[in-house]
Amino acid sequence: MTHKTAKHPSRRSALQLGGVALLLGVQHIARGATIVAVRVWPSKDYTRLTIESDGEIKARQFFVAEPPRLAVDIEGIDLIPALRELVAKVRSDDPNISGIRVGQNAPGVVRLVIDLKQPMLPQVFTLPPIAAYQYRLVFDLYPAQPPDPLEALIAERLAGNPPGASPADGAGHDPIGDLIAQQAGKPASGAAAGSGRPADNKPAGAAKAAPELTATAKGRSEGKADRLVIVALDPGHGGEDSGAVGPGGTREKDVVLQIAHRLRDRINQQPNMRAYLTRDADFFVPLHMRVQKARRVQADLFVSIHADAFFTARPQGASVFALSEKGASSSAARWIADKENSADLVGGINVKAKDVQVQKALLDMSTTAQINDSLKLGSAMLGEIGNVGKLHKPRVEQAGFAVLKAPDIPSVLVETAFISNPDEEARLRSDDYQIQLADALMRGITRYFAKNPPLARNRAL
Q1: pLDDT digits over 190-204, tens only?
Q2: Last residue of some domain: 128, 143, 158?
Q3: Same domain, yes or no, for 309 and 429?
Q4: Which of 289, 166, 310 is CA-nearest to residue 239?
Q5: β pairing state of 397-399 and 319-323
Q6: Tell me, what CATH number does 422's domain have?
C-alpha cells in the first residue's frame, strides 16, 4: 500500500510539470527531439516550408489532386505550439498555399494538411545538419504548370513599352536597338521609329512563338522591330541560405537583391531590353536552376551578384569572375568559388530529384567561346566598377563557379565588396553606393554590347 501511495504523487507531479512546460512554450517532442524553427518561403516559382529539429524526423506524404492538397504524416512527434506556428506563417498572398491544417492523427504522429491554390508537384525530403542548421524536413511545392518566363518578359515588353517608345527617363535614342540593327544588317531604330508596332507583332502571337526561337531571323523582313535583349540577373543566395553575414548583421542575400533590383530598373529603361531575375524575392534557388532559368529565357548575358567575405576584416574591394576551363587563376579565386558552390548544401536541394544529375551534366558543357566572351564582359564591368570603389584585383579572375557554366551565355560573377569588412559593409547598406554600383554595372553592360552586339535571333518584341 505504501509503495502504491508513493508512486501516485510522482506520476501526478510529472503530468503537472509537463503541462506547465507545454503552456510555457517548451517545444518538446516525444522520443527526444525538439522543433527548433518553422519557416515558410513563398515565391511565384515555388513555396518552401521547413521544419527544423535537433533530431531527425520522418514523414510520409499523400497528394490529393481534387481539391489540390498535400497531407503529410510526421512520425515520432506530438502536436506542440511550434507546429501551430506554421499555420500562422502562411501569408494570404502566397501564390501556392491557401492554408495549413495541423492535428494529432495518432499517438506520436502529427498530420499536416497543406491546402493548395493550384495543382502542384510536391517534393518532400530531409537535410542533414550543416552550417547553422540542424536537421530539416523540407516541403518544396512547385506549380504543375509554371508560367513561361520568356513569354512573360515579351508580354510585359509589348504591354508596357511598345517598340519605338522612349525609355522611362525620356531619352528618345535607342543605343541597344542600334547595335542589334547593325549586327542584323537592318536600318537603325531611328529609321523605323515612326512606324509603330508591326501588324504581325501581336502580344499573343509573340508569346506563342517565344519557345520556338531560333538563331535565324526566320520570316522577318527589313525594317521590322528589333528583338528583345535579355540580361539575366542572379542575386546570390536567398531563403534558407543567407550567404555571408557582416559584422553588423547585414546579410549578403538582402543587399545583393537590392542591388539587382536597382540594376533591373536601369536595364528596363533601355528600349528593347529587359532584365530577368533568377529570384526577385527572398527564396532559395539551386545553382543549376539559376543557369537553367537564364537559358530558358535565352538570356544574352548572365550577371551573378554577390558580396564577398573572408575570415578577417582586412580584405576589401570588388572583384569580377569568369569561368575557368583549366582551374582557378589564384588560390583566392579557388577559395571563393568553393564557397559559392557550397550554396546548395546550405540552401538545401533535393538530391533525389530526377533532373538534378541531368542539370549538373549540362553545367559541364561550357565552351571556350563562352569563356572568352565572359572575360570581355567581366573586363568591361571591372573597368566601370573601379570608377566607383576599390578593386580587390585589377583583372578578371577565373575559377570553376557552377553558376557560370551556361554553355551559350556570357556569364560573370560580381563580388560587389567584402561584407566582412565593416567599412565596406556600411557602403553596401547605403543607397548611394548601391546606386553608384548599379550605374557602373549598367555602363559595363553597355560597353560590352558596343563592342559585341547581340546576335540576331527571331525573338519578337
Answers
A1: 333 333 323 333 333
A2: 143
A3: yes
A4: 289
A5: parallel
A6: 3.40.630.40
